[in-house]
């Protein structure tokens, strides 16, 4: 994989997209984010934004509270078990206790920095935190979809549909999980496109206009909260964005160091166990909703240190293929698809990726649809890359499988997953199989298009 210079990459990503992507269809006028760079928030604009967010917020509050048995919206009684764990970890940290030995059946498995940010969650009443957490999650979904080119009523309706029908989004809100926030941090950091916050003056350089934080900063925060987004550091290096990679490393190291200062014993415990291969998961890694490649291997061959080591090989292969696919599409000008493919690879390669972690199917679906986007440098309206039918079929099979989650009908619990038949293992592994098909297909398609651009004969 050839590496381009950081400065050239920083200034040319969107310019490349402007050259290589076709003009937007007029039928999408009014449905894409083509706001003027100098626009500022006004009372009228705030009122319109509140109106457009109302339906997704109502849907989000409903699914967050009523998805699981025993929950209800009126009276407000959600069953946000993950959010409860976060709040408990924040409370225990305040009391000087061990956040990795919480009472109850669900452990806290995140880095100490996540517990540090969970402290404010423990300071306020549970209902207020639950509602605010849900609102932030819904707005994060809308912000991601806006970055991919949706706006106005299209954004409002599409966001409501995603929140209501896309299983990873629905369950993440219902669990009170942070997966949506992690995905949004990376998308809003690395994917060029329309931004929500008011812009900086037009005299600012185009490549820096409207960016509030240096590229890589929000990705670093995501990786410090949960290690999986660390794959994007490899992506940044692969595409030659050394400055963004340096920011990612610097910010990640800074917040991790802050955690060491605030909670040295807990930090030493977490990183020490991790260095010895102890993730704290135990046998839960084989649980049927874990849709990672490593989980598939361990469920087939059993739980042991040698099998866990063996399972690292296909996980490493997924990382290599995923970053390769992302780098190829980055150089073809479709940064949105590149970042999305890298996100999918990170999920498949992670030791644990519960089915509700697959938030990346939302950006991937928008890439498949070909939502019009605007170049952050030129301001011109563009459509996403046109993808061939065979790729669309493979892509939608992956998205549909994740959303429908038919593997949830398999027998589960009590380590029964270790006794599955061959057909049951095959069914459980289809998320990884289809995900790898997407990554390999992305490499093949990008490679072919690069050869065509170079005028090389096709074989």
> What is the approximate shape?
globular
The DSSP helix count reads 19
Listing every helix as H and every strand as E from the N terminus to the C terminus, the arrangement reads: HHHHHHHHHHHHHHHHEEHHH
Could you name the ranges where pLDDT drops below 50 across 5 or more consecutive residues? Answer: 1-38, 199-209, 375-379
Structural class category: mainly alpha
- Output mean pLDDT: 87
What order do the helices and strands come in, and which of them pair?
Blueprint lengths: L5 H15 L22 H24 L14 H14 L17 H11 L3 H22 L4 H14 L1 H9 L3 H12 L26 H9 L5 H8 L3 H21 L1 H12 L17 H9 L3 H27 L3 H15 L11 H9 L3 E2 L6 E2 L6 H16 L17 H7 L1 H24 L6
Antiparallel strand pairs: 1-2
Helix pairs in contact: 2-5, 2-6, 2-7, 3-4, 5-6, 5-8, 6-7, 8-9, 8-15, 9-11, 10-11, 10-14, 11-12, 13-14, 14-15, 14-19, 15-16, 15-19, 16-17, 17-19
Quick structural overview:
The chain is an all-alpha fold and 459 residues long. 61% of the residues lie in helices and 1% in strands.
What does this structure look like?
The protein is mainly alpha-helical and 459 residues long. Among the domains are: 37-79 and 125-211, no CATH class; 279-459, no CATH class. Helix content is 61%, strand content 1%. The protein is built from 19 helices and 2 strands. Strands 1-2 form a two-stranded antiparallel ribbon. A hairpin with a 6-residue loop joins strand 1 and strand 2. Helix 5 runs parallel beside helix 8 (179-190), helix 14 (305-331) packs antiparallel against helix 15 and helix 16 (361-369) runs antiparallel to helix 17 (389-404). The radius of gyration is 22 Å and the shape is globular. Mean pLDDT is 87; it is low at 1-38, 199-209 and 375-379.
């Amino acid at each position: 994989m050839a590496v381009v210079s950081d400065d050239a990459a920083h200034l040319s990503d969107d310019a490349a997209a402007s050259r290589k992507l076709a003009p937007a269809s007029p039928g999408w006028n009014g449905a894409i984010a083509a706001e003027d760079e100098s626009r500022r928030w006004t009372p009228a604009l705030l009122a319109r934004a509140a109106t457009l967010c109302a339906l997704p917020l109502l849907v989000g509050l409903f699914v967050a509270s009523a998805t699981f048995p025993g929950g209800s919206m009126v009276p407000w009684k959600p069953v946000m078990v993950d959010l409860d764990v976060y709040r408990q970890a924040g409370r225990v940290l305040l009391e000087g206790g061990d956040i990795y030995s919480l009472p109850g059946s669900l452990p806290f498995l995140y880095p100490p920095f996540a517990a540090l940010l969970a402290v404010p969650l423990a300071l306020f009443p549970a209902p207020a935190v639950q509602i605010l957490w849900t609102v932030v999650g819904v707005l994060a979904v809308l912000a991601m979809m806006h970055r991919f080119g949706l706006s106005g009523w299209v954004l409002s309706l599409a966001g409501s549909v995603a929140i209501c029908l896309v299983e990873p989004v629905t369950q993440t809100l219902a669990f009170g999980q942070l997966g949506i926030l992690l995905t949004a941090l990376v998308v809003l950091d690395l994917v060029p496109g329309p931004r929500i916050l008011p812009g900086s003056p037009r005299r600012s350089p185009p490549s820096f206009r409207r960016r509030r934080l240096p590229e890589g900063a929000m990705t670093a925060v995501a990786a410090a909260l949960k290690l999986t987004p660390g794959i994007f550091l490899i992506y940044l290096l692969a595409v030659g964005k050394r400055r963004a990679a340096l920011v990612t490393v610097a910010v990640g190291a800074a917040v991790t160091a802050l955690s060491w200062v605030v909670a040295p014993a807990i930090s030493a415990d977490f990183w020490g166990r991790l260095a010895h291969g102890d993730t704290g998961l135990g046998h839960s890694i084989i649980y049927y909703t874990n849709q990672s490649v490593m989980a598939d291997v361990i469920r087939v061959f059993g739980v042991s240190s040698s099998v866990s080591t063996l399972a690292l090989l296909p996980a490493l292969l997924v990382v290599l293929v995923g970053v390769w696919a992302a780098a190829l599409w980055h150089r073809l000008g479709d940064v949105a698809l590149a970042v999305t493919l890298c996100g999918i690879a990170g999920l498949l390669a992670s030791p644990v990726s519960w089915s509700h972690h697959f938030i990346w199917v939302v950006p991937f679906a928008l890439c498949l649809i070909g939502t019009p986007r605007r170049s952050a440098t030129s301001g011109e309206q563009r459509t996403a890359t046109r993808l061939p039918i065979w790729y669309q079929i493979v892509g939608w099979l992956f998205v549909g499988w994740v959303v429908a989650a038919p593997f949830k009908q398999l027998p589960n619990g009590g380590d029964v997953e270790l006794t599955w038949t061959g057909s049951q293992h095959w069914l459980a592994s289809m998320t990884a199989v289809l995900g790898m098909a997407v990554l390999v297909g992305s490499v093949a398609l990008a490679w072919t298009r690069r050869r065509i651009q170079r005028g090389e004969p096709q074989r």
